[in-house]
Amino acid sequence: MTTSLTLGTRIQRIRKRRAVLQRMIRTDLSVKYEGSTLGYFWSVLEPLLMTGVYWLVFGLIGRLGRVQPFPPYILSGILAWQWMSASFTGSMRTLRGNSKLISKIGDLPREIYPMQLVLTKGIEFLITISVLVPVAFAFGLRPSLYMFYLPLAIVLQLMLLTGLSLGLSAANTLLRDLERVSRPVLRAWFYLSPVLYPLILVDERASSLAQTLYRLNPMTGILTLHRSAWSGWTMRPRGGGAVATVSQFDSWLTVGYSAIGCALILVIGYLLFTRLEPRVLKEI
Amino acid sequence: MSDAEQTGTVTKDWRPDAPPSDAPPIIECRDVGIWFHVNRRRKTRIRDHFIRGFQKADRFWALRNVTFTIRKGESVGLIGSNGSGKSTLLKLIAGVLYPDEGEVLVHGGVAPLIELGAGFSGDLTARENVYLSGMIMGLTEKEIDARFRKIVRFSGLKGFMDMPLKHFSSGMKGRLGFSIVAQVESDVMLLDEVFAVGDRRFKRKSVKVMEDKLSKEGRTLVLVSHRESDLTRYCERTIWLQNGVVRADGPTEEVLPLYTAFQDEAEDEE
Question: Does A34 touch chain B (CB under 8 A)?
Answer without folding.
Answer: yes
